[in-house]
Design brief:
34% helix, 2 domains, alpha+beta, 26% strand
């Protein structure tokens, strides 16, 4: 069936060419978008002024000497009327136009007897002949696999799908606007790194032919940005792609956009004041409200955020202090929760897994989680009040982490010791433990001022819009189509 449709459309393509019509011209005139035609219809009709519009044919009804089209661009959809009195080569277009074709229309505003806003065409130009038929609006694309694999069809058929990406653009624009106003400057750092650092994750490996060296795709933006703080920058941020060779679920992908900023002479308490203000600005700017729905619940981002102590919350849910528990006790608790961690997982990884199973799902309203165990956060600065916890905050809402910040570790000797601990875990088989990074240690030895750092990913946007992470990526990574 599909082969026959393509064959027939190719025949129409050839028919156009034989009559001197270029079905793929490079230049087109456009004086109005369809949305503006609809908005200013009364004045356009009154003035009887001709204008140029372009778009995709979304519906086609042949009434003999008249053709009714539904023409759509990014701003809206309107009816177009073609008739054999006005249109040169009317029989040619009657034989060759299909749903999905892109066309140019020159005409004026026209109100039908039924009162439908329309454009009466004086001239038509083919801009791109479609060789495949678009699924109908009525049936759409019900198969999630097809929707994600052929997202361009999803966004043709589904206004909600298009709106996701429009809002996502506004989301990142709002973050930039806020940080720029606060005196941060945007920078960019390399995607390829000799050592993958800044997070606990398994990296992708690639080969650099010119240098004949293996490199990692970055798993975080952190290390390069901290080196810039060492280099004299005080307020910097980057929005860029990061890559983690891990599993896929509703909140995780291997290739996604992340934002990190670093702020010299500030600590995690300064971050908390700035971040609540930033999130409220971004959410209001993107969605027009500070009360959003998530899985049937109302989330009130506009209220004063709670502050929750990690250790205290852990004890309440698990009936023991994670700082005092042995690896065997942690492993036993993890197994009773059905976690089944790797045997080589250290105490910090086990504590984190148990927290994610027992504490995090209960944090629904926006919350600052503080006083994370040092074992869980090898790059954060130890608390001066309790060296077993670090000066870290996590923004948690809707049962998941939606941002992560630190008073950054700037003691090179402490950092070296923690890298050594992480290196030992890697030797025991923990692929996500930090690599030993001598170049970063050397940079720290030149001195890095007290610094606060923070990061968030597009998971935040996915939660705000109540979609899985794959739904907000235009072309998420997928297995090859074997058909």
């Amino acid at each position: 069936m599909l082969e026959e449709i393509i064959k027939e459309r190719k025949r129409k393509l050839q028919y156009l060419k034989e009559r001197g019509i270029n079905p793929y011209p490079s230049k087109v005139k456009r004086s109005l978008v369809i949305g503006d035609v609809i908005k200013n219809f009364a004045s356009l009709k009154r003035n009887k002024k001709n204008f140029d519009v372009v778009g995709r044919v979304r519906a086609f009804r042949d009434q003999g000497k008249i053709i009714f089209l539904e023409l759509e661009d990014a701003s809206g959809r309107i009816q177009v009327i073609l008739n054999n009195e006005n249109i040169l080569q009317f029989p040619t277009f009657k034989k060759t136009l299909d749903i999905g074709d892109f066309i140019h229309i020159f005409g004026n505003a026209f109100l039908t007897k039924r009162g439908e806003k329309s454009i009466l065409a004086k001239k038509i130009t083919v801009l791109a002949k479609a060789l495949r038929s678009i699924p109908s609006d009525f049936y759409g694309l019900e198969d999630t696999e097809i929707r994600l694999r052929k997202r361009y069809l999803d966004t043709i058929l589904n206004k909600e799908a298009r709106d996701i990406f429009i809002k996502k653009s506004l989301f990142w624009k709002s973050i930039r606007e806020f940080l720029d106003r606060e005196g941060f400057i945007e920078v960019d750092t390399p995607v390829l790194e000799a050592i993958a650092g800044g997070a606990e994750a398994e990296p992708f490996v690639t080969h650099h032919n010119a240098l004949n060296e293996d490199f990692y795709l970055r798993i975080a933006l952190e290390i390069s940005l901290k080196k810039m703080i060492v280099g004299g920058f005080e307020k910097i941020y980057e929005i860029g792609r990061v890559f983690r060779n891990e599993g896929i679920d509703a909140e995780h992908l291997q290739d996604y956009t992340q934002m990190e900023f670093y702020w010299a002479y500030a600590d995690y308490k300064d971050l908390m004041k700035l971040l609540e203000k930033m999130y409220k600005f971004v959410i209001k700017n993107t969605f027009g409200t500070l009360t959003l729905s998530w899985q049937g619940k109302k989330i009130h981002w506009g209220k004063k955020w709670r502050v929750v102590d990690y250790i205290q919350a852990f004890k309440e849910k698990n009936k023991f202090n994670p700082l005092e528990a042995t690896k065997e006790e942690l492993l036993k608790r993890a197994l009773t929760l059905g976690i089944g961690p790797e045997k080589n997982a250290g105490r910090g990884r086990l504590i984190d897994l148990i927290y994610k199973k027992t504490v995090r799902p209960t944090l629904i309203e926006p919350t600052f989680l503080i006083n994370t165990p040092t074992l869980v956060s090898p790059l954060a600065k130890r608390s001066s009040e309790n060296p077993e916890v670090v000066e870290r905050l996590q923004i948690v809402a809707c049962g998941t982490e939606l941002g992560n910040g630190f008073s950054e570790l700037n003691d090179p000797l402490d950092q070296r010791a923690r890298f050594e601990e992480q290196s030992a875990l890697r030797k025991e088989g923990d692929k996500e433990a930090h690599m030993f990074d001598e170049e970063f240690l050397e940079a720290l030895e030149y001195g890095m001022p007290p610094t606060a750092g923070f990061g968030l990913s597009e998971r935040l946007f996915a939660i705000l819009i109540d979609k899985s992470i794959r739904e907000i990526i235009f072309s998420p990574p997928m297995k090859k189509n074997r058909q």
